[in-house]
Design brief:
Elements: E1 3-4, H1 20-28, E2 33-34, E3 39-43, E4 46-49, E5 54-56, E6 86-87, E7 106-109, E8 116-117, H2 122-136, E9 154-158, E10 161-167, E11 178-186, E12 197-205, E13 211-218, H3 222-234, H4 259-267
Parallel strand pairs: 1-2, 6-7
Antiparallel strand pairs: 3-4, 4-5, 7-8, 9-10, 10-13, 11-12, 12-13
């Protein structure tokens, strides 16, 4: 197995430096990889790369990125943005009456910043389907259910590690005046068996102290902490209030000062 990637930033939902564990896991298992590389040609089993290398493979699995399949709509009066996504409002309505859109093809908005975004993840599509169905079958036209926006909460597994994030993307942080706080500690009591390091990084707005983005990476517990931060953002908590979240504690599960709490304590000094 060989991993080929056309840039040096894989798993772009995560901060670039936190993806180091992916390469560590590949190297640990002697799986070769090449960055800034692309396939130029496939002939039979022979694969020619842009670097000039030619290698033989039995199977090629390609992930070529995501773009909206909306060309067929360009001749219609349905509005598309400059990237081909369909802008929708809080009801998933398009600019045309009684025409709705959902899923990977839409432009919606972040819940916590209200900025436009396109998030190609399953949760948003399922929530949109339920909300659209609720509104078009409702007997009351005056009390429509509204969508509050997306946070892009996501997680992937790479062998023994999980890498998750929530909030605006790393590339979008430049639009904000932000501060960052980070903590690495064991996912549960260190004296309890199978304690492993967990890293949690949280970005927050300097003026409002509201959480903009968070990343977590570790062998255990990353999912729980990202879910907690996601809930905190929905609850409109500040980064400082993370110290007040009461995490279920017993030695196999967390610490008296959980890593989420420690982010809140450390944020006080910023």
């Amino acid at each position: 197995t060989t991993l080929i990637h056309r840039s040096d930033h894989i798993n772009k939902s995560m901060d670039k430096d936190l993806n180091k564990v992916i390469f560590d896991e590949l190297e640990k298992r002697h799986i070769p990889y090449r960055l800034n590389e692309e396939i130029a040609d496939i002939s039979g089993r022979e694969v020619t790369f842009k670097s000039g290398k030619t290698e033989s493979y039995d199977l090629v699995i390609t992930g070529v990125g995501i773009e909206p399949n909306s060309d067929w709509l360009k001749s219609s009066s349905l509005k598309l943005n400059e990237k081909g996504y369909i802008p929708v409002n809080e009801y998933f309505e398009t600019n045309l009456e009684d025409v709705y859109a959902l899923g990977d093809v839409i432009e919606t908005f972040y819940r916590h910043t209200k900025k436009p975004t396109s998030v190609t993840l399953a949760w948003g599509a399922h929530r949109a389907a339920a909300l659209i169905a609720e509104n078009i079958t409702s007997k009351s036209s005056s009390s429509k259910a509204t969508f509050k926006g997306l946070l892009g909460t996501n997680i992937v597994k790479m062998f023994d590690y999980a890498l998750g994030s929530v909030g605006v993307s790393e590339s979008e942080l430049s639009n904000y005046d932000y501060e960052v706080v980070e903590q690495t500690q064991k996912q549960h009591a260190g004296y309890y068996p199978s304690a492993e390091p967990l890293t949690l990084r949280v970005y927050f707005d300097k003026a409002t102290r509201k959480i903009l983005r968070a990343c977590a990476v570790g062998k255990d517990g990353a999912d729980k902490r990202i879910d907690i931060i996601s809930t905190a953002i929905i609850g409109n908590l500040t980064v400082d209030e993370l110290r007040d979240i009461e995490i279920a504690y017993a030695p196999p599960f967390s610490s008296p000062k959980d890593i989420v709490n420690m982010i809140g304590y450390k944020a006080q000094s910023k």
